[in-house]
Amino acid sequence: MTARVLLLGGTGDALAIARTLGPQHVYSLAGLGRVPADLACVVRVGGFGGAEGLARFLADEAVSLVFDATHPYAARISANAARACLAAQVPYWALRRAPWRAQAGDDWRMVSGWAGVVEAIAPFARPLFTLGREPLEHLNEVPEQQHWTVRCLEAHPGHARARIIDARGPFTAEGERALFTESRIDVVVSKNSGGAATEAKLAVARGMGLPVVMMQRPPLPDAQREFTSAQEVIGALDDYIKRSSNA
């Protein structure tokens, strides 16, 4: 049997995994951010049409394993992938990156959605949003007493009461400290993404005594095998591909 892996990606960890895959495998991106041009595997951009569309793709393309390395907050994609794998009788593996944990000196305010974010930042004047694109949908709701700094992957024309920064990690403590100081940030708004690439903002917030409004992770479906690092995944996929090829 020839193994064919569908890697659902869009994160730095997923890209590291994709760089180890050969031309028979597929790396799938939702379409946000830059499309890598240095991969040996097939790169597919765009949705599948929900769980049903993904199940058809798995059958049509003879996919033997789906690996979910999407963002920890991509709950809909993960749910559709799990349902599609169940319908197509294809194994579903996933990278479940460990969340950050509050440390001594941290002032985290936990919220579960956008309404909670708005309520939590109400006392502050200059929040920094590191939630991706979601704040861009609310630029016309910026209160008069606030000025937002929004960091996301894609360029945006901006707004009279918001500064939009398109940047991709990893970010350094020095760079974060300079941004906080220049923009006079008084609260950081973050997803609990885990990983080292964007963790510096938390250390800088801790050192500067700034609160962090932390959005809780959504529930994700169980996988037949779960991993916590890209290196674990690379080893497991290599073993799977070799075993499948020798079967």
Automatic annotation (TrEMBL):
* Associated pathway: Cofactor biosynthesis; adenosylcobalamin biosynthesis
Q: Which UniProt keywords apply?
A: Cobalamin biosynthesis, Oxidoreductase
Q: Which InterPro entries match?
A: Precorrin-6x_reduct
> Which biological processes are named by the entry's GO terms?
cobalamin biosynthetic process
Which PROSITE patterns does the UniProt entry name for this protein? COBK_CBIJ (PS51014)
Q: Give a yes or no for keyword Zinc in this entry.
A: no
This protein's record includes keyword Transport: no
Q: What is its EC number?
A: 1.3.1.106
Q: What is a single molecular function from GO for this protein?
A: precorrin-6A reductase activity
Instruction: Identify this protein by name.
Output: Cobalt-precorrin-6A reductase
Organism, as annotated:
Paraburkholderia acidiphila
